[in-house]
Write a structure and sequence with these properties.
flat; mainly alpha
Amino acid sequence: MTGDNTQSAYDAVLDEPVPWMAMVLRISVLLAVALAVAGAVMDGDFGRFSAGACVVVIVALPLLRVVVQGLHWARIRDLRFALAAAGLLAVVATGAIIASL
């Protein structure tokens, strides 16, 4: 054992997070909270729209993360995870299509 703590280039790329994803998640959470508060406080059409938009943001946020990670994995040629992300999105899309019928 040499005690060398160097990583291979492949491991370094896999461990690298998508740099702007944390900021998008924070902004989306703040947007969802603002829409939820507006939906709870406002009356009429605006309140219903805000509540609906809050649900859309909450549902779309994990899907956005899967899309971004899937593209990231495809870019670095880790096809196992890229195909897993594509499969998950296909299952969600199939469920949405079936639900809309």
